[in-house]
Amino acid sequence: MTNNNDPAVAAARLGDELKSIAGRMSAVSADFEAFTAALARESETPQDADVPPVAATGPQPAPQPQPQPEPQPQLQYATVPPTVGTPFTRQPFGPQSYSVPSYAPQPYPPHPYGSPSYAPRPFPAPPATPAPSLGKRLSDAAERGLVGRVLAAVGVAITLIGIVLLLVLAAQAGLLRPELRVAGGAVFAAALVAVGWRVGRRPEKRPGAVALIATGVAAALLDVLAATAIYGWLPESAALVAGALIGGGGLWSAHRWNSQALALMVSVPLLVFAPVVAGGVDELLVCFMLTYAAATLWLQAGRDWTSLFVVNTVATTLPMTVFVVIGDGPAWFLAVTALTGLALALCSAIMLAPASSRAAVLGLTSVAAAIPLPMIAGQWTAGAGSSTAVIGLGAVLFVVAAVATRGPASVPFVCRVVWLAAGAVLISMALGVALDASTISLGFLAGAVIMGLAARWADDLRGAVRIAATVFAGLGLSSLLETGGAQQLLYPGGLSDSVHATLLVGSLLGLAATMVLAREWGTAAPSRAQQIWLIGGLIGLWLTTELCVGVAGVATGGSATGFRAGHLAATLVWFGSAAAALMWARRLQGASRTLTLATGLSVIAAAVAKLFLFDLAALDGMFRVIAFIVAGLVLLSLGVAYAQRFTSEEPAH
Q1: Which of 215, 561, 570, 614 is the most exposed place for a label (fewest CB within 10 A)?
Q2: Per-residue model confidence as pLDDT tens digits over 518-548
Q3: Among 138-147, 440-449, 632-641, which stretch is predicted with the lowest mean pLDDT?
């Protein structure tokens, strides 16, 4: 037999061999899968059951005898015979060009037993933990000391109710002599404090000692108040001094043991029972609560005792508010005490803020201390000047507290922002009391100018001051329109000289506020400076028109001729301002040039719109002629100037 040395024949023979090997591997894989499925079914079938053999479905082909190939490593089954072809003779490798035949991939034979399926086995649910019984929960609470604290608090309340009954109801019924009632209350209070101090020397017994000392201190304070309000044995000044000594000295153990609960057990009962002992809310009660809060201020230094601060602020503000509503006391007394209470609340917040974890609560609570101020101003009989002074002083306290507490270890930012907002609200209230409806716009616009100028020195509060100034400017411009600004622009006559003067001054203040705020907001948001200045420019055009028409109205007494002359002047100012901006833009470069050019073109567009939409109908005679001629000359001059600039910049050829 001759050997065929054709490379194509050799490649075909090699492909047949690979195809034969792939077929045998496929058969082995199918048999292994069938074997695995059979084992899985046997494991799911009970061992003691007789399982009949599985009958094959369909006709089964008769086995064909196959010639056995030579043994291959790791191949145990031979189902596909090798292809018999022409013997292969090795040829030397050389640069010969020939094509290799390609074969389409052969599909795997189907599984003889189908795809096995396995049912998921459910996992057993964990056993439910039984809920602890009521006795178990009570036992745990007793071990944590909760039961003891609850019983102690209830004991404090009931004991103090008994003290109040001894001092008030027994006096009304005449059961005991006054000396016995007052002396018995004092001795009882001293005994409770002494026993509590002795018990509290051991730390594990301090919850009970806290309740004893709190009951004793509160009883002593109520006893002093009763001796002054009911029996008149102590002068009011002596009662205030005694209350300060008892409150500040008696709660020294709270500061030493770092127990806010002790101080709360004194402040809360005092807030509830003091009006009962004093026989109502009067000057003595207001001053007594202020003195107690001031005397206990040192206890809170360096402590996160926000709850005590809230209770003490309510204890000083609530009686004062009730007293204002009743209206029995002199207004000057309420003004002084209200300002003192606000200052005390701000000082307490400043002392507590560095160590407090709830700075926002401190800020809002101290703002609540200013509630009596506008109420007092509403009932003040001395005039608007005194009421404005009271509210203005409250605003000054807030602003000073917000600005003067900057630094790395100072009051948190959120607290100072709350104070600044409260100061702005009080300033707006003071303006509303001091000015009437025709002049309130001037106050708001002046405040906007001052705040806008002060914003650059406000450091981290600059954004808050900027927002407050913007709100004031918005209120001022709205009030300016309501005062007569819209009527002055649309109809000739109908306004008095005082209103024209108010609009004139308001226009000047509005222009100043608009320019200052546009600069501030443009600096804060450089990416939006063009839009900000565009809005400011449109507002400036309106205010410029108000200014021109207002001047003409004042000069001519509000006549129709002055109305037309004012609008003509406004139109000329619009075109002149736009021309100046466009000519100035030629000297600039970069973003400044783009901003100035856009602003000038926007003003030009607004001026042309005003010329055709308003001036053409509102003006007559020479006013209309002058407006159109001057506007046309300005536009022609700008066109020539810009065309010359661009022509001169063309490159030479």
Answers
A1: 561
A2: 999 988 888 888 788 888 888 988 898 888 8
A3: 138-147
Residue 640, pLDDT > 70, answer yes
Cα gap 495→513, rounded to integer Å: 25
Q: Which helix H or strand E contains 445, and what residues bound it?
A: helix 440-454
In degrees and rounded to multiples of 5, residue 4 shows phi and psi of -95, 115
* Cβ-Cβ contacts under 8 Å for 231 (sequence gap 6 or more): 178, 182
pLDDT at 313: 93
Candidates 394, 398, 393, 392; CA nearest to 349 is 398
CB 428 within 8 A of CB 469: no
Q: Please write down the long-range contacts of 243-248, taking CB distance under 8 Å and 24 or more positions apart.
A: 243/288, 243/291, 243/292, 243/295, 244/291, 244/292, 244/294, 244/295, 245/295, 246/217, 246/220, 246/221, 247/217, 247/221, 247/291, 247/292, 247/295, 247/296, 248/295, 248/296, 248/298, 248/299
The runs of H, that is alpha helices, within 56-177 are: 134-144, 146-164, 170-173
Q: Which two tokens stand for residue 282?
A: 């009067």
Give the per-residue pLDDT at 141.
Answer: 47
More confident residue, 118 or 294: 294
Q: In whole angstroms, what is the distance from residue 430 CA to residue 568 CA?
A: 39
User: How far, in Å, CA of 492 to CA of 542, rounded?
Assistant: 17
424 contacts 473 by C-beta, under 8 angstroms: no
* Token pair in block for residue 567: 């609008």
Run of H or E including 214: helix 206-229
Mean pLDDT for 45-65 is 46
In 3D, which of 246, 271, 251, 270 has the Cα closest to residue 261?
251
For the stretch 336-391, pLDDT in tens is 999 999 999 999 888 888 877 888 888 899 999 999 988 887 765 556 677 888 89
DSSP state of 88: B
The model carries a pTM of: 0.68
Task: State how far Cα 533 lies from the chain centre.
Answer: 28
Half-sphere exposure (Cβ direction) of 164: Cα atoms closer than 13 Å: 18
Please measure the distance between the N-terminal and C-terminal CA atoms of the chain and give it in whole angstroms.
90
pLDDT category of residue 485 using cuts at 50, 70 and 90? confident
Any bridge partners for residue 4, and if so which? 88
- Structure confidence at residue 408 as a pLDDT band (50, 70, 90): low
Handedness of CA 445, 449, 454, 458 (dihedral sign): positive
CA-to-CA distance for 388 and 369, rounded, in angstroms?
18
Answer whether residue 117 shows pLDDT above 90.
no
In angstroms, the CA 12 to CA 99 distance is 10
Which residue in this structure is represented by tokens 């079914």? 41
DSSP state, residue 483: I
pLDDT of residue 626 exceeding 60, the answer is yes
3-state DSSP of 507-553: HHHHHHHHHHHHHHHHHHCHHHHHHHHHHHHHHHHHHHHHHHHHHHH
Token pair of 391 as six digits: 């509210």
Q: Which amino acid is at 437?
A: A
> What 8-state DSSP symbol labels residue 297?
G
Q: Angle formed by the axes of helices 384-403 and 331-352, to 10°?
A: 10
